[in-house]
Design a protein that fits this description.
This protein has helices at residues 6-15, 52-61, 89-101, 134-151, 165-175, 196-202, 223-235, 250-259, 270-281, 287-301, 311-318, and strands at residues 23-30, 36-37, 45-48, 66-72, 106-111, 124-126, 131-133, 155-158, 182-189, 240-244, 264-268, 305-308. It contains 11 helices and 12 strands. The strands form 2 sheets. It has an 8-stranded parallel β-barrel, surrounded by 8 helices. A two-stranded antiparallel ribbon has the order 6-7. 40% of the residues lie in helices and 18% in strands. The chain starts with 5 loop residues before the first helix and ends with a helix. Helix 1 (6-15) runs parallel beside helix 10, helix 3 packs parallel to helix 4 (134-151) and helix 8 packs parallel to helix 10 (287-301). The mean pLDDT is 92. With 320 residues, the chain is of the alpha/beta class. Bound molecules: zinc ion. Zinc ion (ZN) binds next to loops.
Length: 320
Amino acid sequence: MNKNSKEYYLELARHCGICKNDLIYPIFITESNQHKSLVSMPGIAKIPYHKIIDHVDNLMKKDLRTLILFGDPKKRDEKGSLSFSHNGIIQKTLKLLKTTFGDKLSLISDVCICQYNKSGHCGILDTKNNQIKNDETLEYLCKIALSHSEAGADIVAPSSMMDGQVKIIREKLNNEGYKKIKILSFSAKLSSSLYKPFRMETFLRKNLKNLDKSSYQVSYCNRKEIIREIDSDIREGVDMVMIKPSITSLDLIYQTSKTCKLPIVVQIVSGEYSMIKAASSIGAIDEIYYLINLIGAIKRAGGNKIISYSSLDLSRFIGR
Ligand SMILES: [Zn+2]
């Protein structure tokens, strides 16, 4: 078989155990009426709320049925209060998608305030000492997770890396009658330059050029600390753990898979996506072949589900 042929790539994908059911597709929903293409992420756009049904309908035709939603609200305020509004962009979208598609679609919602507050930080900022207030942030995360559950989320995904976020959200959801809602924690969100394209689109163009989140994300150098973060989420009752970025975390995925009985979700983040697109655009790599290599390596290391901006491209390639 020709090693540059579609048949060969498809066989390789099968060998690696890559299937559409493992792919999760991230979507940005904007309150603006304009479809906004993301310059640093070719092929990705912020989708206006009024176009979301058509967009998701197209994804479902390609068998993409698990989506993770990120909101792009019109306004930000000091504390990000629109993040838990019943009329917020994510809450409205969850309601609309669940009413339209029901259980054919599995919806994960990003639980954080950085898209909604003026600081762009994932927590409430104490402006006197420039520190994040962990416990005050937890109260916000609970409100956001509850409002998403009420609106129809199947899985809530706290991404702010605050200490104790899984425990307090689990308790809140259980007390409010949402025991069935699962929690996917961004357990090991390594501090990395690979988030830059996402941040360029969501933060830097809003004059937040010096945003430094390293105080609450984990250093990629400290393996023990990272494993501790994952263990702590498991003890707090998380249903799935997430490790990101992918390419710099294969050892962590492998180590976690040796003891963790829960699904391990791995995100191929925006910077990885942009690098793949850039290299492919000058003919330096074959995009689909590389994606199969990368996802094959993540699966070999022990990852179960993959969040990727390339999910749609891969789904199209794999076909029926
Ligand atoms: Zn955040």
